[in-house]
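Reviewer 2 asked us to include a model.

Predict the structure of this chain.
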Amino acid sequence: MPEMKTRWDIFCTVVDNFGDIGVTWRLARQLVAEHSVAVRLWVDDLRAFERLCPDIDINATQQWQQGVEVRQWSVDWQPTEAADVVIAAFACQLPSAYMEAMAEREKPPLWMNLDYLSAEDWVVGCHGLPSVKYKNVQKFFFFPGFRKGTGGLLRESGLLERRRQFQQSPQAQREFLQGLGIDRAPNAQLISLFAYENTGLASWLDTMAADSTPTHLLVPEGRILGDVERWLGLHGLKAGAVHVRDALTVQVLPFVRQDQYDLLLWSCDFNAVRGEDSFVRAQWAGRPLLWHIYRQDEDIHLDKLDAFLTLYTQGLSEPAREAISGLWRAWNAGETMTDHWKSTRKHWPELEKHAETWCLEQALQADLAAALVQFYLNWI
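Predicted model (structure tokens):
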């Protein structure tokens, strides 16, 4: 794509700790690095941002991080010139003064609502359509997605090649894991666990502890830690803690920055993830995964879950499809995991092969950043 001398503003309201800022921070960096656009990222919670990017100064109203201008989005909004492209992430409401600034531009900006990721059928029909209008400024729907006719998924240039090289290098994996204080047992399956609170966890841990195959479970600091503590009968687990119960080793990891989290996912045999950003990164890892979807009112999140499972499990044998679908549904309902995990383990080779196939199929689509740039080029 041609290099563009355009200015982009991305607005992010941090709703669920890390998912919103995870997506927008990744997108902002990629737009700067691969498309040479100037990006201002407006964030209303720099403390959450700091967990993903420890270099952030949480008190600075303006700073530069990895080529991105990061601005603190506070209630005390200062007059600001509107950019050429304005992205409201996940339907966040822009400051009224900024909307006026958009309307005052001689050439109105391209205004897009970057929506949540969904595999539901209706997304294809709505992607790219005009939404509301503010004075002379038209807003458009922009949907990430898994099908042709959507905006695709965030994927940096060369990501899968870097992943392939890492996964083919036992030394690189060993050095990375040792850097986090992880001493992987030779025959243990390595599993990462990043999830919301879940009443089904205890049964899953019981099942892994009783398994004939040893499991090393890596738990980055986060909301699921309280359930891990209850299962261990402990309190105040911190990063670095290691506890062994029969065939299961549980190790608590520090919350890692985004690039390190990729390496963690690539190192593991199975990844349990949550939200949106981690969900996409686990798919690029090419390994079997378990998604804890963000709960929504009236259980509409379960429709999203089923839509993705319908798409993801295409090509699997019926027993393997039932196994992985059952596991995901039980996990998201907080139900007993024992039978579902045993069934999943039975179909492991097929599920491993399928995860890689799915990853490569998704990589055939344009990535989200490139799709956004192309949408802008078409618009002008």
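The chain has two domains: 7-154+365-379, 159-362. The longest strand covers residues 7-12. We have added this to the supplementary material.
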